[in-house]
Amino acid sequence: MEAVPQAVPLPLAFADGVFPAGCPSRTLLDHITSKWGVLILIALSEGEQRWSDLRRRAEGISEKMLAQTLKTLERDGLVSRNAQPVIPPRVDYSLTERGYELSGLLVPLVAWAFENAEDIINSSR
Amino acid sequence: MEAVPQAVPLPLAFADGVFPAGCPSRTLLDHITSKWGVLILIALSEGEQRWSDLRRRAEGISEKMLAQTLKTLERDGLVSRNAQPVIPPRVDYSLTERGYELSGLLVPLVAWAFENAEDIINSSR
DNA sequence: TCACTAGCTTACCTAAAGGTCAGTACCTTA
DNA sequence: TAAGGTACTGACCTTTAGGTAAGCTAGTGA
After folding, report:
1. CA geometry: angle at B109 spanning B105 and B114, to 5°?
2. Which residue has the higher pLDDT, A80 or B18?
3. Residue with smallest Cα–C1' gap to D26
4. Does an H or E element contain A94, and which?
5. Residue A92 lies in a domain
6. Parallel/antiparallel/unpaired status of strands B49-50 and A90-95
7. CA→C1' distance for B19 and C14 (Å)
8. In angstroms, how far is CA B66 from the centroid of its own chain?
9. Under an 8 A CB cutoff, do A42 and B77 touch?
10. Which residue's CA shows the smallest distance to C1' of D10?
11. CA angle, A3 then A122 then B46, to 5°
12. Average pLDDT for B62-82
């Protein structure tokens, strides 16, 4: 495991101090990178899905956390909710334009994690 | 806030179920997307830095969390630690090759968050 | 002799994230 | 008549992430 001397250029905005402590980006980043936030965004990057689909796809999520996470992402304007007044209820969730912008950056990251995870986690203990 | 009908193609690997619950990628993702993990990786993407530099750049981090986060990232082979046997001690941290690979994906994400955060967080309450 | 440095570790505690389970509304199917 | 599906909410409890503060090491400068 050798150190490598190159550096990825950083946006000047956070060249010093990464970014300040009370900064809104910290909050947004917390929403996006929360345990279930990532998974929901990734799942939705494939297109509109129902509540029950999301429950299955984000394996292990509780209904409480699904509701909470979706609400946060909706408030942030990343996810849009479409409820149809039918019985039994049917609610579809999808990414907004902004959500797709984000998922375009998130998918490669998660894909990388997926590809490297076994190697990394198993060899690190 | 309109829904948009396009979809980002997902790696087939997690086309179904995003990825399984006990999967190593969940663990790795937790390390990477932890509150301080992201910031440390971003800070190091600019190049080697000392302990005390990192403390300053990741504004608000406690010594305990800095140590813990660095250890995790080191165990995962993303960060390398170079301690010089001098007094007072001097320890440099840098990204490994794998760490740079990752930070190349992480930086655009964080930059996006930085650019959109104010807009999103302020208008969502 | 004392304080001061940098890079930690440890013990203790709090706050927040998250889990479990029960309940609800309304209709359909067995 | 009873059970089941769907999309939730709320109460309550546990687990974990993270904060605070003190201590340690081994030298150097005052």
Report:
1. 145
2. A80
3. B87
4. strand A90-95
5. yes
6. unpaired
7. 33
8. 13
9. no
10. A64
11. 25
12. 96
Domain presence at residue B102: yes
Range of the domain at A76: 24-123
Q: Is the CB of B88 under 7 A from strand D?
A: yes
Strands (E), chain B: 49-50, 79-84, 90-95
Max Cα-Cα span within chain B: 61
Residue B114, pLDDT score: 92
Answer whether A100 sits within 8 Å of B8, measured CB to CB.
yes
At what angle are helices A97-123 and B24-32 packed, to 10 degrees? 110
Q: What is the dihedral of CA B38, B39, B42, B43, to 10 degrees?
A: -150
Q: How far is the CA of B57 from the C1' of D29 (A)?
A: 29
Q: Please give, rounded to a whole number of angstroms, the shortest distance from the CA of A37 to a CA of chain B.
A: 11
In angstroms, what separates the C-alpha of A44 from chain B's closest C-alpha? 8
- What does the pLDDT average to over A88-117? 95
CATH number at residue B65: 1.10.10.10
pLDDT score for B5 = 47
Rounded Cα distance between A30 and A80, Å, is 19
Whether A100 shows a pLDDT value over 80: the answer reads yes
Residue A54 covered by a domain: yes
> In chain B, how many domains are there?
1
Using alpha carbons, list the distances in angstroms from residue A38 to A4, A46, A87, A99, B19: 29, 13, 30, 12, 11
- The verdict on a CB contact (< 8 Å) between A57 and B19 is no
Is B112 close to A105, i.e. CB distance below 8 A?
yes
